[in-house]
Amino acid sequence: MKLKTFKGGIHPPDNKQWSEHKAIEDCPLPDELIVPLSQHIGAPAVACVEVGQQVAKGQEIGAAKGFVSVPVHAPTSGEVVAIESRPHPGGASLPAVVIRADGEDRWSGDLQGADPSSLSVEEIVEKVRSAGVVGMGGAAFPAHVKMSPPPEKPIRTLVFNGVECEPYLTADHRMMLEETERVLQGVAILQYVYGAERVVIGVEANKPDAIALLQKECADNPVEVMPLEVKYPQGAEKQLISAATGREVPSGGLPMDVGVAVHNVSSAAAVTDAVMLGRPLIERICTVTGPAIREPKNLRIRIGMPLSHLVGVCGGLTEEPGKIILGGPMMGFTQAGLDAPTTRGTSGLLLLRDEDVAKSPEGPCIRCARCVDACPMNLLPTTIAAYSRRDLVAEAEEYCAMDCIECGSCSYVCPACLPLVQSIRYGKAAVLAKKRNS
Ligand code: SF4
Ligand code: SF4
User: Fold this and answer.
1) Can you give the pTM of this predicted structure?
2) Residuewise pLDDT in 10s, the chain (438 residues)
3) According to the 3-state scheme, what is the secondary structure of 353-387?
4) 368 lines ligand 2 (CB under 6 A)
5) Which residue owns the Cα nearest ligand 1 atom 2?
6) Smallest CA separation from ligand 2 atom 3, residue
7) Which ligand does the CA of 331 lie closest to?
8) Domains in the chain: boundaries
9) In a 3-state reduction of DSSP, which class is residue 183?
10) Packing angle between helix 180-194 and helix 171-178, nearest 10 degrees?
11) CB of 417 shorter than 6 A to ligand 2
12) Which ligand sits closest to the CA of 424?
């Protein structure tokens, strides 16, 4: 049977063999955890503890500021030893709460779970908000905002993202295999919240064990487990919706415009913890992998663990890495070193050798149109990039620069090695700046 997919896209080597068969391991606690107050799209949280204060695991240490914001919580028990700017995975130094672990790992007594069937939709959404649940596929958009669509945009179809199309990453794969019940409880809770008529879990066909297990577990309920073609970026929101439902989100639109909401499978598991156990999002599964790490692993990490700690737990480096990436190689964030801490969006830590990093010299565009064929958003990457490089902001906008999802497919296929996605990202920032100033 032909597997469903989207138009465009690329087929990079998936390189998942390093960690796909490694069972999840609990990462031991470091002495000190650095919890950034900015870990999500929207307003950063504001510290609500003081230096010297003792905190319990799961206690709120940063309060949400506004609707599009979430609180942050202590990942273990201990003492707040600093509230100051620290290296952030995004590149800058940003405010963080630093906790010296006391080794007791003692939960706060205030956390209360509930039977979801005893709660109203509003009560569930509030539990998800106060637990700080965000999209865990990388975007880190607050889940409670997505769970509150306006009445004129009802969600008829709920799609769960178990695609994990980024090369190397296997965290969601292991989550679906090893924590299936947590995932499916979250799926049921979210179906209840939205009142969705159709529920689909999309999984790339390179995870046949996860597909078979989910299909078996969903045999007696209406959840559809859909194998999808292995193609990057199959897990991008609009491409997943296209593959799973046949609907196209319009330019500048949102999934709710076509009656769809998308959540990551790991986010579904976090919703289960938030509602049924009252536990905030203080840990996640993270793949530490790549040719420059001695023992690739899928680790259950706490938010705020320094990247250097994860490397140590995985046996250290085989050599000085040529590139350090948080997330996958296509859309992850390059790191200058290992000082930054993990956040709720840290799906992977990828350590590449010098020889794994392509360094071909740039040449002139040969008008081959490979970038056009690869673009999953039907854009003209070479044109937008050229306008962006020349600061022709209105022209870049006219060619729909803002529709670019920064997937990097165009750069990947370009035989002239042009940094197309970097140029387009620059153009998008210029379009936004122009809008802000007008
Ligand atoms: S233009 Fe944007 S969306 Fe299209 S392939 Fe390039 S990075 Fe991806
Ligand atoms: S893939 Fe590269 S060389 Fe080919 S048209 Fe696009 S920018 Fe030009």
Assistant:
1) 0.95
2) 789 999 999 999 999 999 999 999 999 999 999 999 998 889 999 999 999 999 999 999 999 998 999 999 999 999 999 999 999 998 889 999 999 999 999 999 999 999 999 999 999 999 999 999 999 987 789 999 999 999 999 999 999 999 999 999 999 999 999 999 999 999 999 999 999 999 999 999 999 999 999 999 999 988 999 999 999 999 999 999 999 999 999 999 999 999 999 999 999 999 999 999 999 999 999 999 999 999 999 999 999 999 999 999 999 999 999 999 999 999 999 999 999 999 999 999 999 999 998 778 899 999 999 999 999 999 999 999 999 999 999 999 999 999 999 999 999 999 999 999 999 999 999 999 998 887
3) CHHHCCCCCCCCCCCCCHHHHHCCCCCCHHHHHHH
4) yes
5) 404
6) 365
7) 1
8) 1-27+111-357, 370-437
9) helix
10) 90
11) no
12) 1
Residue with tokens 């490979």: 370
Nearest CA to ligand 1 atom 6: 410
CATH of domain 1-27+111-357: 3.40.50.11540
Pick the residue whose CA is nearest to atom 4 on ligand 1.
375
Residues with a CB atom less than 6 Å from ligand 1: 374-377, 379, 381, 404-410, 420-421, 424
> Is the shortest distance between the CB of 370 and ligand 2 below 6 Å?
yes
Distance 366 CA to ligand 2 centre (A): 6
Identify the residue whose C-alpha is closest to ligand 2 atom 8: 365
The rounded distance, in Å, linking the Cα atoms of 331 and 333 is 7
Contact 90, 333 (CB under 8 A): yes
Query: How many Å apart are CA 436 and CA 438, to the nearest integer?
Result: 6
